[in-house]
């Protein structure tokens, strides 16, 4: 499983996503550029905002999301803007401006709505806004959100649309997981002590019925999307920055490492910068993949489960295509859950 | 001032008061001004057991007593001695009163005089006040002294029940954050929590306060707390206080040490004991008396949890506070049979106390000018048995004195209690001596760190090993000289071999980051024919700096501990044989490395009591970069690796000596195949059962998961349908798209000029 190393960013990675077919990978980084890559060979397809003055971001790009048809890309950045891009041309179609940085964006499953989380800062509360997207005439988008949820209490750090897109599921700085109604903006369900530290990532299962959260409290947890009931807990010995659920095989992938601030210079081993594979059901670690020399900030898995990619503080993205043995191996004998794709 | 004047001096009001008081009656006043028999006599002592003499010898007796008192440091004038006289018998009554100028001096005299020998008589000294107090104690007539609490008898839980494990497994303790767990170490590193009768794992939130320690035979688990020490025993390691839980109150306790047979305990606190007479905590009031004030060491009797004696700290912390803080522990050293406890008063002598009275042996310390350190000689199982039959030899200590002008440094072996010097050996150019007794007391190695003859600084640069063969007549000594410094030495437990680490690396002793110091490791063996020690194996350029022998000998682990870059562990077997014929060829031929391992961040290493497993642990107390622990077998195969955040302690539970006789052990060895067959079957069954349990658990998890998924899928499909949406059917992964890549590579380019 020789990784393909994508060296196109000058600063650390913030989020990476595969498109629905898994042939493209989009990476956002602190160097204010978003790159698109061919996953098969690591060639760069293009950039979004690479050249100054073409409508690119002017600050750390915190988040990136791609629609299921690979037509549009949404990005959010520290320059207090959210942008909509045409993937095929690389042109910025629309820019929304806010009062604070945009920390997270996500598409719903019908590709007609997006959400954005803005940072809590300078007296501004953390706000989740839902925008409709006009797919027919992409340059004319509305400025007024469908719903605006001004959060009280702990700020939201991550969010996604629950299946059928009636609800938004959020992860908070305090470790809370909550569910909001998209139409009314009301909090319909919450688990206050889901985690004991900041929630750093949230990713949905292939069919959307459950999701995984990673946290600074060194655990990752699996929740039921409907009830927010905790299904599984994966306890590691390092703060986690990202977690994802692998299709085809019953594994989840976790990534993290010591904080960049507290990383010692002695050895990369002390930092625990490996991607960890855990068995989704038995809550046991089954393997690790080394390679990064900084904490892993973001993980993404190929939608058909053929590969996974990790982006780290060291500025590299590593794309790993799984070997044949990965699909064949049965570390727990004949015990295998039903396959889901 | 007379009474009349006093009354005249009163004001009118006061006179009225006085009048009223008088009217109330004298009873009150009497009570208030009653003479306390104990007060006013603090400076008076009663000495009992004085020889009975007649008038003629009275003066001589008084003079002799005064001499004795002066010698003991409690001099007294003749007029302050009063000797009650029995006129009818014309003799004294056998006791005298001493009146000292103040209470302080009397207290001192009490301490130094009590129990001293006067001729054939032993003098008993008491406070004058105590006589009356104890005489007036409400005893007799079925009445019990005040403060007596009747305690119902409670049956003790079995103290050694853990040894009855069917599989003969050992226990170990792990301490993480504030969480203490106790485990059975199963085959192949499979850990199983030790459970109580209720089937729940043993847990106690009180254990994780400071740190923990097992007693030397594994009977008690000692937990240290800010207020004292608690010992936990029995199958639950818990139970009623005073029965299976023993408490020893000692505020600020930091270090503890059990006696080898677990009868006694020494505790040390860096806070001096205070006067607890009026303290709010009853335990403190009852445990310590005023004479314990200011002391740091407490010697306890374990079973009764009573204080036997307290001692002050060694040196007053002050100018050399730094040195004092690095106090060498143990300060008190126990003889191997729990008969004595001794302490070295550096430079002046060794104080040996008898147990359980805690009185000085023969009433005085052993005076040894310049003594630096000493160690008790351990006893073999045979010695212990002999001692039980009352036929044992005397105990033995080894001590050394440094060089002074015109006198060489000297190592001595001394018998206790007779104080006979059994062997003495002179040494020259000595910087320091360290004693290493073989575990059965057969051999003593004195590692002598030496400096060059004319060297100005007394820094040790090379080393001698002085090997005493203690079981042979006249204690022959063999000297092995080295040109290098020897930082580590270790005897094979109960064996005739030893291993040592030496280093001639110029970087030794300097902490240069990134530089790995190289060591040489040597193995020596007692040659049975010649009777002296010969080198059998030399290993060059090793990075291991720590030697750990397996408790039954033969196997040794060489570890690199304390380095910031290397964490290697090597597993060696000294008697590795593939075929029997090679055995006995040449002594070093069978020394073989079985395996190597690495435990990143290791800080501690320990064999289990059986010598089959070894645990390496990384403690967050020593700021290890990756706290946690590993368990290995003796071959160096890693069986378990448990990285745990904030991991602190790993402790194997020790075992008492085996109850099998030598013959029984021999029989088991001989018929090992027979014996092991039965266990092989059990092992196989165990393995199946273990995996079956796990399998069932996993199967359950899978079926639960599948059921939940099916439910959820159904629900979400219905929901989608109700909205007229189709479930997005992921098209069957279409035939893998082949991405063909054309790569053109220019291999060579040459330009040729074609001349037309």
Q: Assembly state here?
A: heterodimer
Sequence stretches where pLDDT stays below 50 over 5 or more residues of chain B? 1-7, 316-325, 729-733
CATH superfamily of the domain at 17-150 in chain B: RRM (RNA recognition motif) domain
Shape of chain B: globular
CATH class of chain A: Mainly Beta
Helix content of chain B: 10-25%
For the residues shown, what is the average pLDDT of chain A?
A: 88
Biggest sheet architecture of chain B: 4 strands, antiparallel
| SSE sequence of chain A, one letter per element | EEEEEEEEEEEEEEEEEEEEEEEEEEEEH
User: Separation of termini of chain B?
Assistant: 152 Å
Report what the structure shows.
The complex is a heterodimer of chains A (341) and B (756). The radius of gyration of chain A is 19 Å and the shape is globular. Chain A has 341 residues and is an all-beta fold. Chain A has 1 helix and 28 strands. Among the domains of chain B are: 17-150, Alpha-Beta Plaits; 375-481, no CATH class. Chain B has a 4-stranded antiparallel beta sheet. Chain B has a 4-stranded antiparallel beta sheet with strand order 11-10-9-44, with no helix packed on it. Chain A binds chain B through residues 23, 40-41, 109-110, 163-164, 206-210, 218, 224, 226, 231, 237, 264, 266-267, 269-270, 281-282, 304, 332-333, 335-338, 340-341, and chain B through 564-565, 600-601, 625-626, 628, 643-645, 695, 698-699, 701-702, 705-706, 708-709, 712-713, 715-716, 719-720, 723, 725, 728, 730, 733, 737, 739, 741.
Summarize this entry quickly:
The complex is a heterodimer of chains A (341) and B (756). Helices cover 1% and strands 46% of the residues of chain A.
């Amino acid at each position: 499983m020789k990784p393909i190393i994508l060296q196109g960013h000058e600063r650390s990675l913030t989020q990476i996503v595969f498109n629905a077919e898994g042939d493209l990978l989009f990476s956002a980084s602190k160097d204010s550029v978003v790159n698109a890559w061919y996953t098969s060979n690591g060639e760069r397809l293009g950039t979004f905002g690479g050249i100054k003055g073409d409508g690119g971001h002017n600050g750390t790009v915190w988040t990136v999301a791609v629609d299921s048809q690979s037509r549009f890309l949404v990005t959010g950045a520290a320059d207090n803007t959210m942008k909509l891009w045409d993937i095929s041309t690389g042109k910025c179609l629309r820019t929304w401006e806010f009062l604070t940085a945009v920390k997270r964006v996500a598409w719903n499953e019908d590709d007609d709505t997006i959400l954005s989380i803005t940072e809590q800062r300078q007296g501004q509360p953390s706000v989740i806004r839902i925008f409709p997207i006009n797919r027919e005439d992409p340059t004319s988008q509305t400025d007024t959100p469908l719903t605006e949820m001004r959060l009280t209490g702990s700020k939201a750090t991550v969010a996604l649309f629950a299946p059928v897109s009636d609800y938004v599921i959020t992860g908070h700085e305090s470790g809370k997981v909550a569910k909001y109604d998209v139409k009314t903006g009301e909090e319909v369900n919450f688990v206050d002590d889901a985690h004991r530290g900041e929630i750093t990532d949230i990713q949905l299962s292939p069919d959307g019925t459950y999701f995984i959260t990673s946290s600074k409290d060194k655990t990752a947890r699996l929740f039921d999307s409907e009830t927010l009931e905790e299904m599984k807990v994966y306890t590691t010995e390092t703060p986690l920055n990202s977690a994802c659920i692998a299709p085809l095989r019953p594994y989840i992938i976790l990534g993290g490492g010591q904080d960049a601030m507290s990383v010692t210079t002695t050895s990369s081993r002390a930092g625990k910068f490996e991607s960890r594979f855990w068995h989704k059901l038995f809550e046991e670690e089954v393997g690790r993949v080394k390679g990064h020399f900084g904490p892993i900030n973001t993980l993404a898995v190929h939608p058909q489960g053929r590969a996974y990619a990790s982006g780290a503080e060291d500025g590299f993205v590593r794309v790993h295509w799984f070997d044949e043995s990965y699909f064949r191996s049965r570390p727990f004998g004949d015990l295998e859950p039903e396959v889901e794709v | 001032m007379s009474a009349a004047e006093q009354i005249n001096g009163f004001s009118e009001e006061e006179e009225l008061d006085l009048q009223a008081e008088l009217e109330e009656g004298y009873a009150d006043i009497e009570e208030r001004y009653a003479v306390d028999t104990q007060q006013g006599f603090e400076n008076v002592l009663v000495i009992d057991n004085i020889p009975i003499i007649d008038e003629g010898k009275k003066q001589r007796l008084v003079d002799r007593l005064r001499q004795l008192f002066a010698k003991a440091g409690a001099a007294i004038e003749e007029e302050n001695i009063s000797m009650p006289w029995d006129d009818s018998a014309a003799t004294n009554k056998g006791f005298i009163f001493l009146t000292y100028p103040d209470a302080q001096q009397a207290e001192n005299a009490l301490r130094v005089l009590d129990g001293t020998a006067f001729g054939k008589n032993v003098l008993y000294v008491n406070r004058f006040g105590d006589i009356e107090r104890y005489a007036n104690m409400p005893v007799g007539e079925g009445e019990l002294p005040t403060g007596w609490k009747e305690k119902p008898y409670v049956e003790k839980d079995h103290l050694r029940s853990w040894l009855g494990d069917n599989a003969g497994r050992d226990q170990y303790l792990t301490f993480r954050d504030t969480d203490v767990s106790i485990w059975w170490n199963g085959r192949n590193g499979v850990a199983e929590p030790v459970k109580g009768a209720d089937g729940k794992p043993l847990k106690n939130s009180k254990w994780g306060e400071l740190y923990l320690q097992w007693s030397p035979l594994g009977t008690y688990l000692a937990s240290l707390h800010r207020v004292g020490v608690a010992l936990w025993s029995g199958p639950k390691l818990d139970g009623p206080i005073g029965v299976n839980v023993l408490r020893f109150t000692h505020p600020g306790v930091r270090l503890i040490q059990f006696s080898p047979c677990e009868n006694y305990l020494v505790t040390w606190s860096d806070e001096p004991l205070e006067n607890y007479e009026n303290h709010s905590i009853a335990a403190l009031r009852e445990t310590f008396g005023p004479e314990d004030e200011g002391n740091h060491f407490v010697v306890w009797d374990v079973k009764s949890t009573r204080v036997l004696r307290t001692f002050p700290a060694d040196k007053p912390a002050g100018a050399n506070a730094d040195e004092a803080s690095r106090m060498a522990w143990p300060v008190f050293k126990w003889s191997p049979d729990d008969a004595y406890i001794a302490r070295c008063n550096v430079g002046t002598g060794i104080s040996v106390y008898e147990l359980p009275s805690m009185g000085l042996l023969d009433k005085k310390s052993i005076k040894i000018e310049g003594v630096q350190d000493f160690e008790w000689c351990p006893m073999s199982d045979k010695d212990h048995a002999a001692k039980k039959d009352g036929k044992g030899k005397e105990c033995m200590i080894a001590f050394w004195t440094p060089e002074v002008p015109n006198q060489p440094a000297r190592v001595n072996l001394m018998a206790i209690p007779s104080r006979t010097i059994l062997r003495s050996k002179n040494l020259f150019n000595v910087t320091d001596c360290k004693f290493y007794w073989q575990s059965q007391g057969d051999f003593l190695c004195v590692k002598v760190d030496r400096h060059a003859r004319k060297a100005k600084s007394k820094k040790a640069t090379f080393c001698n090993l002085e090997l005493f063969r203690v079981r042979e007549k006249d204690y022959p000594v063999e000297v092995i000289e080295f040109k290098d410094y020897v930082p580590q030495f270790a005897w094979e437990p109960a064996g005739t071999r030893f291993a040592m680490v030496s280093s001639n690396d110029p970087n030794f002793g300097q902490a240069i980051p990134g530089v790995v110091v190289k060591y040489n490791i040597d193995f020596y063996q007692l040659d049975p024919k010649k009777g002296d020690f010969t080198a059998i194996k030399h290993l060059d350029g090793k990075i291991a700096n720590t030697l750990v022998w397996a408790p039954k000998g033969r196997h040794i682990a060489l570890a690199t501990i304390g380095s910031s870059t290397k964490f290697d562990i090597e597993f060696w077997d000294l008697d590795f044989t593939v075929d029997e014929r090679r055995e006995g060829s040449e002594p070093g031929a069978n020394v073989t490395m079985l395996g190597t391992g690495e435990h990143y961040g290791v800080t501690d290493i320990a064999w289990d009591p059986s010598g089959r497993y070894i645990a390496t642990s990384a403690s967050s107390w020593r700021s290890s970069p990756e706290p946690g622990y590993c368990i290995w077998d003796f071959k160096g195969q890693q069986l378990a690796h448990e990285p745990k955040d904030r991991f602190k302690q790993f402790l194997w539970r020790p075992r008492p000596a085996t109850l099998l006789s030598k013959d029984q052990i021999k029989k088991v060895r001989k018929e090992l195949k027979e014996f092991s067959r039965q266990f092989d079957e059990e092992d196989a069954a165990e393995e199946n059962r273990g995996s079956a349990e796990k399998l069932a658990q996993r199967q359950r998890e899978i079926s639960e998961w599948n059921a939940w998924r099916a439910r959820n899928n159904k629900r979400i499909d219905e929901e989608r349908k109700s909205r007229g949406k189709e479930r997005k059917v992921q098209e069957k992964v279409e035939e893998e798209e082949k991405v063909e890549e054309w790569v053109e590579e220019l291999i060579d380019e040459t330009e040729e000029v074609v001349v037309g």
